[in-house]
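ok, trying the design again with the full structure, not the truncated one.
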């Protein structure tokens, strides 16, 4: 019985200490911080990623709100070529309005920041500033959790 407990303890310690290290090796790749600025009503959006003019990834059910919606896109290692330019297009599905932003997968493996302005036919919004305590103001902003984009073939492990 003591031998089983010792083996279980060794397995647990190995997983606890080696697991994060192993996952970090798979979690390399391109991270894109996407900011979608819009004056449209809350709705679902389609996010398409292009490399060398070819669509390589699609997300159909992202939710955007008026103001700024921040979304993190995580591409697995090797999915986007090192040094390649990418284009990320966002389509507001209810209004059928589309706009794109450009990014770059640097060889230094740094996160990329891409901004997409998605405005309808009404005038671009003046973000309303509401006074808070202490005279500070705020604007609308929403952050969503990361979206992991993995190749259709092979394994994708996310930390």
């Amino acid at each position: 019985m003591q031998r089983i407990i010792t083996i279980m303890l060794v397995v647990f310690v190995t997983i606890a200490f080696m697991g994060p290290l192993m996952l970090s090796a798979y979690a390399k790749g391109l991270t894109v911080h996407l900011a979608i600025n819009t004056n449209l009503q809350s709705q679902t959006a389609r996010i398409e990623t292009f490399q060398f003019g070819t669509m390589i990834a699609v997300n159909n059910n992202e939710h955007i709100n008026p103001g700024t919606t921040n979304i993190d896109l995580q591409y697995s290692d090797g999915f986007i070529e090192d040094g390649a330019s990418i284009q990320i297009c966002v389509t507001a599905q209810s209004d059928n309005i589309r706009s794109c932003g450009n990014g770059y997968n640097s060889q230094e493996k740094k996160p990329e920041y891409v901004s997409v302005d998605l405005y309808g036919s009404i005038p671009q919004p003046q973000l309303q500033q509401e006074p808070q305590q202490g005279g500070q103001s705020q604007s609308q902003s929403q952050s969503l959790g990361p979206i992991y984009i993995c190749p259709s073939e092979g394994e994708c492990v996310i930390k």
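Keeping the full-length input from now on. The domain at 29-124+137-149 is CATH 2.60.40 (Immunoglobulin-like).
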